[in-house]
Design a protein that fits this description.
With about 850 residues, the chain is an alpha/beta fold. The chain has a five-stranded parallel beta sheet, with helices on both faces. α7 (about 250-260) crosses α8 (about 265-280) and α7 (about 250-260) crosses α9. The protein is globular.
Length: about 850
C-alpha cells in the first residue's frame, strides 16, 4: 500500500469489508520477566602495562596493553569538575524538613591555627577522641582553605584505607582518567605534581605509612584527623600536632540549648552539669541529650494536645499539657542514650538501626531503605537518626555514631543479625548485578556490601538443591563491579570472602572463579608468586569440572605470569593442562630439522623436559630422523653432561643423542689411531710385498664380503625401497658379450659424479680410484703391478677436499634394482663403533664417517687396515 495514498481504514473509517483490529488485552499481571537473557557487563580498563577485560562469566582476561590502546597522560580537572567531585565526596542530605545548624562552639582558636599552618604549606595532624567534633572542625577549615592551593581542597576518607588506596583516591580526585589505573611509578609521578590541601578524616595509620604518603605528595598540605589510639607520625616528619579536647561546662550547656531548641530550666541546667562531668565535655553527648529533651517535650504534650490541635499535634507548643509521666533521664541514660532514643523513634527507623547493627555499624543508603525495610517512607528514617545524633558522616556515607553500636547490641538489637544480614545480602546481590547500576554507585556502597559479606561468610553452609548461597551470590556480582569501578581494595576483600564462602558451600565452580580473579589481581599488583599459585589452583579446579573456556583464560594469565617472571612453563608445569614442548624445545626442533643430520649434532634436551620415551601410540615431540645422504656429519661432544639425565630413556631424542655421543667418541678415537698407524706405515714400510703399495688405477673386480654381485656398487636405500646412488658410480646396464649381467666380462663403469680436476685416468689430489671422483669405494684389491701410484702418498695439507665427500654405505645389504634379490651374508668384521651386530643407525653413520676420514687422511692403502682395526 502506498503510504502517501492512505485508505479510509487508515484514518479510522470502516468500509464494511475489513474487520477492525481488536484492541490488545491488558495482561492480568505485569510481565516483569525478561524475554532474552541480559548480556554480561564487561569492562575494559588499563592497569599499568596490562589491558584488563573484566568478564563476570568466565573470569577476567589480562594481556599486555597494545601501544594503540595506551591512554594519554591524564589531564587535571577544571574548577567546575573539582566542585562536582567535592559535592560527591560529601554524604547525602537526609530527607525531611531542614534542621537548624548547631554551629561550632569554642573551636575558634583551633580553627585559626589550622588555617595558618596550612597556608604555610605545613601538614597538620588533628588528634581527638571520637565524638569530639573533629569532622565538623574539618568542614569549617576546608571552607577557609578553598583558595589556598592551585588544585583546591580534596576531601578523602581514611576509614579502612591504606596509604596506597589514598594515593589512588587522590589521583582520581584531581585527574580525569576514566578506566585507567596507572602503575606504581606512573602514579608517583602524577601525584608528585598535585598541589592541593588534602583533608583526610578518620585515618587509621601513622608512622612510616604516613611518612610514605607525605613524601609521595611534596606539593600537598595534609590536614589529618585521627583518634588517639592511631600511631603517631615518626619523629623526623614535619607534621604539626593539634589536640582537640572536650568543651567546658558553659559551652556544653549552650550546645544543649541549641540542640533542644529552647532555653533550659533550672532542673535541666543541673542535669546538663552532671552530664558534662560524666561525658568529659564531648559535644556528641550534648547533641544526643538535646534529642532526649525534644522527645520528652513531645511526650509531655500527651493526648490532650491531639484534642486541642487536631492532627497537627506536632505543632503544639512545648509544655502544652504538663505531665509527670516523662521525667528527665538519669545521668547513666544520658551518657548512653542510644536505646532510649531508639525506643521513641518510628518503626522503620528502628528497623534501620537493626540493619545497621547487623552490618557492623554501616547504615544503608537512603535509597535502599524502602526495599530493605518494606516501607515506602523508610527513607525518612535517615533524617530521624541524624537528628538524634545516632549516626555520623564518614566520607560519602553514614555510620552509627561513636559508642552507639555497643549500646544497641547490649539493648538486644543484635538478637537476629543473621536474618537482617541475609536480607541485605540478597538485596545487594540483586542490585549490584543489575545492568542499570554503574560500577561507581556500587563502589560508593562498598562498605555496606562488604559488611554483609563479612556477616554471612562464617555461617555459610551447603545450600539445598536449586538454591544458591547468598554470600557466594553477592560476592559473585559485587566483585566485578568493584574491579570495573577501580576500587581494588574492595575487590580483593570481596574475592577473599567469596572464595571462603564458596569453599564452605561446596561450590567448586565459583571457587575456581574466585581463585582466577585473585590471580589476575595479584598479577596486576606485581605479586607474581601469589598470582601463579592462585591461577594454578583455578586451572586445576576448572580442569576437574571440564570448564574449557575458564581453563583457557587461566592458562593465558599464567603464561603472562611466566613471561613476567622470566621462566617458561614446561611439560607438566601447569596442573590440568596438556603437555606441550614449549618455545625452547620448539626452537631446538627447528634447529635440528634444518641441519640435515641435526640429531647427531644436537646436545641433550634441557633437563626441564620429560626424558622418558612417549608411551605406545603417542608420537614423540621430535621423531628420530634418518641422516640425509651426501650431507657432512657434524659431531659435537658435551664436556659436562647433565647430571639429571634419565637412566630409563631408551628411545626418543635423548636416547638417540646419547648413542650419537658414544659413537662420536669412538669415531674420534679411531681417527687418531688410524692416523698414527698409517703415518708410521707410510714412512717405514717400503717393502714391495706390502699390499698397500700395489694398488693400481683399475683394480680387478672381486666379490664383496656380504655376497653382493661382482663389481656391483650398492645404492643407498632411502627407507622406502628406492635406491639413491648419491652421486657414486652407477651399475652398468650392458651385460657384456655373454649376455649375462654381473659377470667378469662386463665393461667397467666410467660415469662419475662430476668433472675431475685433471685428465681422465689421472688421479688428482684426494683421488682414490683413478676416475677423478674424490669419493670412491674405500675397499680395493691389490693390483698386479708392484709400482705404487703417485697418488698413494699421503697429502701434505690437512684441508678438506673442495667438494664434500659422498658416503657410500657398505654396511646394510640392499637389493639391486636390475638383479635378483640375494640373501645377505654375515660380515666377517664389523665396522660399527658399538660392536658387532649393532644396528643403530647413528653408530653406523658415525663409524662410516670415521672410516672415510681415516681413508682420506692416510691414503688409499689404509682402507683394509681400518677394517681390520675395527
Amino acid at each position: 500500500m502506498d503510504p502517501n495514498n492512505r485508505e479510509p481504514e487508515d484514518h479510522g473509517h470502516d468500509d464494511g469489508h475489513s474487520p477492525r483490529p481488536r484492541p490488545p488485552r491488558d495482561p492480568l499481571t505485569p510481565d516483569f520477566g525478561q524475554s532474552a537473557p541480559a548480556l554480561a557487563r564487561t569492562v575494559r580498563l588499563v592497569s599499568g602495562d596490562f589491558l584488563l577485560t573484566v568478564n563476570p562469566v568466565d573470569g577476567s582476561e589480562i594481556e599486555v596493553c597494545p601501544p594503540a590502546e595506551r591512554p594519554a597522560r591524564p589531564a587535571k580537572l577544571t574548577a567546575a569538575e573539582r566542585a562536582e567531585q567535592d559535592r560527591a565526596a560529601r554524604p547525602p542530605v537526609p530527607p525531611g524538613p531542614s534542621r537548624p545548624e548547631l554551629g561550632l562552639l569554642a573551636r575558634q582558636d583551633e580553627r585559626e591555627r589550622l588555617v595558618r599552618l596550612l597556608a604555610r604549606g605545613r601538614s597538620v595532624r588533628l588528634t581527638g577522641p571520637a565524638g569530639s567534633g573533629r569532622t565538623s572542625l574539618l568542614d569549617i577549615v576546608a571552607e577557609d582553605c578553598a583558595d589556598l592551593a592551585p588544585d583546591g581542597v580534596v576531601r578523602l576518607s581514611g576509614f579502612r584505607r591504606t596509604a596506597d588506596d589514598l594515593l589512588y583516591d587522590l589521583f582520581r580526585a584531581v585527574h580525569r582518567a576514566p578506566l585507567h589505573r596507572p602503575g606504581r611509578d606512573e602514579l608517583l609521578d602524577l601525584v608528585r605534581e598535585v598541589g592541593a590541601v588534602v583533608v583526610l578524616d578518620d585515618v587509621e595509620f601513622g608512622g612510616a605509612a604516613l611518612d610514605e604518603l607525605l613524601d609521595a605528595t611534596p606539593e600537598c598540605a595534609f590536614l589529618v584527623a585521627a583518634a588517639p589510639d592511631v600511631p603517631a607520625p615518626s619523629a623526623g616528619s614535619a607534621v604539626e600536632e593539634v589536640f582537640l579536647t572536650g568543651l567546658d561546662r558553659a559551652d556544653g550547656v549552650e550546645l544543649l540549648e541549641r540542640a533542644a531548641g529552647r532555653p533550659l530550666t533550672e532542673e535541666e541546667s543541673n542535669w546538663a552539669g552532671d552530664l558534662w562531668f560524666e561525658s568529659e565535655g564531648l559535644p556528641l553527648r550534648f547533641v544526643q541529650a538535646g534529642a532526649l529533651l525534644r522527645q520528652r517535650d513531645r511526650l509531655r504534650a500527651g493526648a490532650g494536645a491531639v484534642d486541642e490541635f487536631g492532627v497537627f499535634a506536632d505543632e503544639a507548643p512545648h509544655g502544652a499539657a504538663e505531665s509527670d509521666e516523662a521525667p528527665l533521664p538519669s545521668v547513666g541514660e544520658a551518657a548512653a542514650p542510644a536505646p532510649l532514643l531508639a525506643a521513641r523513634l518510628s518503626d522503620f527507623a528502628r528497623a534501620t538501626l537493626e540493619f545497621a547493627v547487623a552490618l557492623g555499624g554501616e547504615v544503608p543508603h537512603q535509597a535502599h531503605l524502602p526495599a530493605l525495610v518494606g516501607d515506602t517512607h523508610a527513607d525518612a528514617a535517615l533524617g530521624e537518626l541524624a537528628d538524634c545524633g545516632l549516626i555520623s558522616p564518614v566520607g560519602s556515607r553514614y555510620r552509627l555514631a561513636a559508642g552507639v553500636l555497643a549500646q544497641l547490641e547490649s539493648a538486644g538489637y543484635a538478637d537476629e543479625p543473621a536474618g537482617r544480614a541475609e536480607t541485605a545480602a540478597r538485596h545487594y546481590a540483586w542490585w549490584t548485578g543489575h545492568p542499570s547500576v554503574t560500577p561507581e554507585r556500587v563502589c560508593a556502597e562498598a562498605d555496606a556490601v562488604l559488611a554483609a559479606l563479612t556477616a554471612l561468610v562464617p555461617g555459610t553452609t551447603p545450600p539445598a538443591d536449586g538454591e544458591e548461597s547468598p554470600a557466594v551470590e553477592l560476592a559473585r556480582t559485587a566483585a566485578p563491579a568493584f574491579a570495573a569501578g577501580l576500587h581494588w581494595s574492595a575487590w580483593q576483600r570481596a574475592l577473599r570472602s567469596g572464595s571462603e564462602a564458596s569453599r564452605l558451600a561446596g561450590d567448586v565452580a565459583e571457587q575456581a572463579y574466585f581463585h582466577h580473579e585473585l590471580g589476575v589481581l595479584a598479577l596486576c599488583e606485581g605479586q607474581l608468586d601469589r598470582a601463579r599459585a592462585e591461577l594454578e589452583a583455578s586451572i586445576g579446579l576448572r580442569g576437574a569440572l571440564s570448564d574449557k573456556r575458564g581453563a583457557v583464560a587461566g592458562r593465558r594469565a599464567l603464561a603472562l605470569v611466566a613471561d613476567r617472571s622470566g621462566d617458561t612453563p614446561g611439560l607438566g608445569a601447569v596442573p590440568g593442562t596438556p603437555a606441550w614442548p614449549g618455545p625452547a624445545v620448539a626452537a631446538a626442533g627447528t634447529g635440528l630439522l634444518g641441519m640435515g643430520t641435526g640429531l647427531e649434532a644436537a646436545d641433550e634436551v634441557p633437563d626441564a623436559r620429560h626424558e622418558e620415551s612417549p608411551p605406545a601410540g603417542v608420537p614423540a615431540p621430535f621423531p628420530p630422523l634418518r641422516p640425509a645422504p651426501q650431507s657432512p656429519t657434524l659431531i659435537t661432544t658435551r664436556q659436562n653432561p647433565s647430571p639429571g639425565a634419565s637412566r630409563k630413556a631408551g628411545g626418543g631424542v635423548k636416547g638417540l643423542a646419547r648413542r650419537n655421543l658414544v659413537a662420536a667418541g669412538a669415531g674420534a678415537l679411531l681417527v687418531a689411531v688410524l692416523g698414527t698407524v698409517v703415518t708410521l706405515g707410510a714412512s717405514s714400510e717400503n717393502d714391495a710385498g706390502d699390499p698397500s703399495d700395489q694398488v693400481g688405477v683399475n683394480p680387478s673386480a672381486s666379490q664383496d664380503i656380504d655376497g653382493g654381485g661382482v663389481g656391483a656398487d650398492r645404492p643407498e636405500d632411502d627407507g622406502n625401497g628406492s635406491a639413491d646412488t648419491g652421486g657414486a658410480t652407477a651399475r652398468p646396464s650392458d651385460p657384456g658379450p655373454d649376455g649375462t649381467p654381473g659377470t667378469a666380462d662386463d665393461p667397467a663403469p666410467t660415469e662419475t659424479t662430476g668433472p675431475s680436476d685433471g685428465p681422465s685416468g689421472t688421479p688428482g689430489p684426494g683421488d682414490t680410484d683413478g676416475t677423478g671422483a674424490t669419493d670412491g669405494p674405500t675397499k680395493t684389491q691389490p693390483p698386479a703391478s708392484s709400482e705404487p701410484p703417485s697418488s698413494s702418498e699421503p697429502p701434505e695439507s690437512s684441508e678438506p677436499p673442495t667438494q664434500p665427500p659422498t658416503e657410500t654405505p657398505t654396511q646394510t645389504p640392499t637389493q639391486s634394482p636390475t638383479s635378483e634379490p640375494t640373501l645377505p651374508t654375515s660380515p666377517e668384521t664389523s665396522n660399527s663403533a658399538t660392536g658387532p651386530g649393532s644396528t643403530a643407525p647413528a653408530s653406523a653413520g658415525a663409524t662410516t664417517t670415521a672410516t672415510r676420514s681415516g681413508t682420506e687422511t692416510g691414503g688409499t692403502g689404509s682402507g683394509q687396515e681400518a677394517e681390520q682395526i675395527i
